[in-house]
DNA sequence: GCCTTGCGTGTCACCAAGTGTCAAGTATGG
DNA sequence: CCATACTTGACACTTGGTGACACGCAAGGC
């Protein structure tokens, strides 16, 4: 009863501490830079001990990257919810748009974080690592969508990779332009470039040796 | 005089120590796993101190990733040396093939390293970070090749990203199959998929609003 | 032959990221 | 009131990585 917010009381308390930690970390890191802030400082700013910090986040990088963690699940959901008959380029465009839009929606909070990530090698590395997981997940979803064998075909992984390349390109431009450029336009332009490959599924993989030869 | 091998004597000595360190590290890491080996052990195995290790490599990850560092330069060189009239898909296929071939060439040494990298989150992250740099370099080269404005157009970054997606996909398959699958065939198949996008440069970016609309 | 200069290395001290352990605090249930 | 489970803080410890200093050794000038 009275479970209005979400889950048990203990879970809500845990969420509270996590939010406090994230808030403190994001503020300090964006202002001072990733290497200039220690975990002790973040913990102190949130009013907990260093040990407790590591009970909530696996690493200092995680505080920032986990802030974008739901993006992976969101993308997969978005892809799964697109009509099966839709051409891949359209389905994938909506897929990455789900996350881009989430960023662009509250740019005031998201932009500094994106700039921090893209500008910090250690964070960029973690972000890309996360993207590699998303790629596998999206590839699995694409294979299921199209009834392809994930282990035999290359298309699913390549399609997912191309979509995430577009994602990353848009994010980079948006970050570099300090939020000036329009994410929607960037997304459309990116997918206009990669669409010819995304929508040429049937030919390339099912017909034997194909057109490629002569190294 | 007597500068047969390369550079001065000091430089050759330095190279010798670096090779010894790399050799020791690769052996230990591949056998025991990345986290199970300490820097002290690597240094001891190479007969130097921990401090000296860090005078040669910026981090423990670097020992492994720097082993593939020349790939970036090799790719850029490969792209720069392709005839300007060549279609992008062909030029980029040769570009990534330069590195794939280098791996496949001495698979006995390269395969364990690739498997170590792809199987270790921390190393994968560094590898992807490196790839992000390559992407920018290849994008710059592509822009110059095609006379495009790197800051205005999206195609260069997207094309470079697609090529590297193919690169990563091939490497992944090759690693997963324990070197069984043919890298050349995988490369050709991958580029057959992405070629339609790579070779459709002119239309998408130069002609105004274009075919993309209706979200 | 000696002495200076410079470079590479080892030793030591140090900081920060993580982890294991244990004791103390607090909510729940009998 | 007590027993239990869960969370937290405090402490110690390992490891990655850096700074500072001293030593050894080669090259070159006197």
Provide structural commentary:
Chain A is an all-alpha fold and 215 residues long. Chain A contains eleven helices and no strands. The longest helix of chain A has 26 residues, at 121-146. Chain A is globular. Chain B binds a DNA duplex (30 and 30 nucleotides) through helix 1 and helix 3.
CATH topology of the largest domain in chain A: Tetracycline Repressor, domain 2
CATH superfamily of the largest domain in chain A: Tetracycline Repressor, domain 2
Helix run count of chain A: 11
Helix content of chain A: over 70%
Number of strands of chain A: 0
Derived structural class of chain A: mainly alpha
In short, what is this structure?
The structure is a homodimer. Chain A is mostly helical. Helices cover about 75% and strands about 0% of the residues of chain A.
Write the layout of secondary structure elements.
2 copies of one chain form a homodimer.
Chain A: H1 9-32, H2 39-46, H3 50-56, H4 60-65, H5 70-80, H6 88-105, H7 107-119, H8 121-146, H9 155-176, H10 183-198, H11 201-206
Helix pairs in contact in A: 1-2, 5-6, 5-8, 6-9, 6-10, 7-8, 7-9, 8-9, 9-10
The structure holds a DNA duplex (30 and 30 nucleotides).
């Amino acid at each position: 009863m009275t479970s209005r917010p979400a889950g048990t009381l203990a879970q809500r308390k845990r969420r509270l501490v996590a939010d406090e930690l994230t808030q403190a970390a994001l503020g300090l890191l964006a202002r001072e830079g990733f290497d200039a802030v220690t975990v002790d400082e973040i913990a102190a700013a949130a009013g907990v001990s260093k040990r407790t910090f590591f009970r909530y986040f696996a690493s200092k990088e995680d505080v920032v990257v986990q802030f974008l963690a739901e993006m992976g699940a969101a993308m997969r959901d978005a892809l799964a919810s697109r009509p099966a008959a839709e051409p891949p380029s359209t389905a994938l465009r909506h897929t990455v748009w789900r996350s881009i839009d989430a960023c662009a929606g509250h740019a005031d909070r998201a932009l500094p974080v994106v700039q921090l990530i893209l500008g910090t090698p250690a964070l960029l590395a973690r972000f890309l690592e996360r993207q590699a997981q998303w790629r596998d997940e999206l590839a699995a979803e694409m294979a299921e969508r199209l009834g392809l064998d994930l282990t035999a075909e290359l298309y699913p992984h390549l399609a997912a990779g191309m979509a995430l390349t577009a994602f990353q390109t848009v994010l980079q431009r948006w970050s570099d332009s300090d939020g000036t450029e329009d994410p929607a336009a960037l997304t459309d332009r990116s997918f206009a470039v990669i669409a010819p490959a995304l929508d040429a599924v049937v030919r390339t993989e099912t017909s034997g040796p194909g057109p490629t030869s002569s190294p």
